[in-house]
Amino acid sequence: MIDVVALGELLIDFTQIRSNDDSVRRFEQNPGGAPANVLAVLSKFGVKCAFIGKVGNDVFGEFLRKQLLDLSIDCRNLVSDPNHNTTLAFVTLDDKGDRSFSFYRNHGADTCLSEEEINLELIKNSKVFHFGTLSMTHEPSLSATLKAVEYAKSCGKVISFDPNYRALLWDNVDNAISAMKSGLEYANIAKLSLEEAQMVTGKTLPEDCLRELLKYDLGIVAITMGPQGCVYATDKYMGSFPEYPANVVDTTGAGDTFWGTLIFGFLNNGADFDGISEERLSEIVLMANIAAAMSTEKKGAIPSIPDFARVRAAFEEINGK
């Protein structure tokens, strides 16, 4: 049985690297795409995962497939498109390691996944279905995403949602907010950035955002805030953690590492967020906060995922266990 199935974008991140010649920008190829990044974390931590998506029948698509297979991620529903190229993202970094994106995605293969190409058996035989909004920016992947999430909901699967807002990929902000709200209507657990939470709720303070988000009948909701750490809540508990100290090189994928680690903890709790104790929830979120910070110390999203043993050791040091 597959533990977690994710649907969405799988692309190449060309991440800027330092050069001795300031007049020349150099980039290195890394696998990317938020849903795939979350699965990479989970698989590296020993969780059985499968990916649903589409890449081009090109060298980039072949590279991405190999990267997922090397992580033991089930790729039987990773479709190769002979007519559209793999999506590319160029990631430039400032002195603090914060990112700016440029996308080459007009008719990118990931947006061309159709309803007919989804293997529903993968979803049926899973515990958690994970998705975001970038597969909802264009047709036919919008209809494919809605079909998959509606099927997962009808099968009683836990729905995990991460909006992963990227302004450049939307026609306008209203469509993006509408898609985020739609995703939250399906979700049991959700992770948002503070910007996303503020967009959806119209609130400013993180705690106020949490209260509004819980109105979507979420079992668990978390908001990541970069250097300000994170906040989280259920209908019973609310908590927060400051940023875990790290030597930041590249923040790409930090939110995905947080989310993958949180889902990992959730699965280890028997996939039960209704009966979770305040102490156990706090432990799970702290572990996610630590892993996310550690992931910023290397470049790229998947290459920067920390070993779980290192995350666990830091957690135990904090808790004195």
Automatic annotation (TrEMBL):
CDD domains: bac_FRK
Signal peptide, first to last residue: none
Alphabetized InterPro entries for the sequence: PfkB_Carbo_kinase, PfkB_dom, Ribokinase-like
Coiled coil (UniProt feature): none
Taxonomic superkingdom: Bacteria
A GO molecular function held by the record: kinase activity
Keyword field: ATP-binding, Kinase, Nucleotide-binding, Transferase
Residue stretches making up the Carbohydrate kinase PfkB domain: 1-306
Entries under Pfam families matching the protein: PfkB
Sequence similarity: Belongs to the carbohydrate kinase PfkB family.
Identification of the protein by name: PfkB domain protein
Lineage summary: Bacteria, Bacillati, Bacillota, Clostridia, Eubacteriales
